[in-house]
């Protein structure tokens, strides 16, 4: 990969990588650090990376760096079926759908959250997700299925509805 190709890959993919990492780590500073470290690693290996494969290589590197940081923090949160209701000006409870969805996704285990974000937010195929995460395509499908079931159960639970 040449310098201009590297710069082009930064322009094309840095925002997508940042958004993906931020959704998973929920920490802006950590997400910026992962993106920075990702591009540093790719720059050091630029002679070995073809520009055509740079997107996959970048996401794979970012994903692995993110997992390393998460393991260091040991942040594994169980799914909690509670929801805070926002009270509007009229005193009636209102549900902020975007916030509810974010809460639901945030409560997923890290592996499930990562694959569901890659599939439903970034639009990657099962095969591409497998390449990025290092998982088999069948395992990616299982994680996505489990994540969707957990999201469905969370979103239709009585605690959320009431």
Describe what you observe in this structure.
- 70% of the residues lie in helices and 2% in strands.
- The protein has 162 residues and is an all-alpha fold.
- The protein has a two-stranded antiparallel sheet.
- Helix 1 (3-25) runs antiparallel to helix 2 (28-44), helix 2 packs across helix 3 (54-73) and helix 6 (126-133) packs across helix 7 (137-155).
- The model is unreliable at 75-93 (pLDDT under 50).
Quick structural overview:
This protein is mostly helical and 162 residues long. Helices cover 70% and strands 2% of the residues. The termini are far apart.
**H/I helix tally:** 8
Shape: globular
**How many angstroms does the end-to-end distance come to?**
55 Å
CATH homologous superfamily name of the largest domain?
Winged helix-like DNA-binding domain superfamily/Winged helix DNA-binding domain
Largest sheet: 2 strands, antiparallel
CATH class type of the largest domain: Mainly Alpha
Task: Name the strands of the widest sheet in spatial order.
Answer: 1-2
Describe the secondary-structure layout:
Layout: H1 3-25, H2 28-44, H3 54-73, E1 86-87, E2 93-94, H4 97-106, H5 110-121, H6 126-133, H7 137-155, H8 158-161
Antiparallel strand pairs: 1-2
Helix pairs in contact: 1-2, 1-3, 2-3, 3-6, 4-7, 5-7, 6-7
List its traits.
2 domains; Arc Repressor Mutant, subunit A; mainly alpha; 8 helices; two-stranded antiparallel ribbon; 162 residues; Rna Polymerase Sigma Factor, Chain: A
């Amino acid at each position: 990969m040449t310098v201009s190709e590297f710069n082009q890959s930064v322009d094309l993919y840095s925002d997508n990588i940042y958004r993906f990492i931020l959704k998973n780590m929920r920490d802006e500073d950590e997400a910026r650090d992962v993106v920075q470290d990702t591009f540093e690693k790719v720059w050091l290996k630029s002679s070995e990376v073809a520009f055509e494969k740079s997107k996959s290589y970048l996401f794979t590197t970012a994903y692995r760096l993110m997992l390393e940081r998460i393991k260091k923090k040991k942040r594994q949160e169980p799914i909690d079926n509670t929801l805070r209701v926002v009270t509007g000006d009229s005193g009636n409870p209102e549900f902020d759908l975007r916030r509810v969805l974010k809460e639901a996704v945030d409560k997923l285990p890290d592996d499930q959250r990562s694959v569901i974000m890659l599939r439903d937010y970034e639009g990657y195929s099962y095969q591409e997700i497998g390449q990025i995460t290092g998982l088999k395509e069948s395992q990616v499908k299982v994680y996505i299925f489990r994540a969707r079931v957990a999201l469905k159960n969370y979103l239709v639970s009585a605690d959320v509805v009431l």
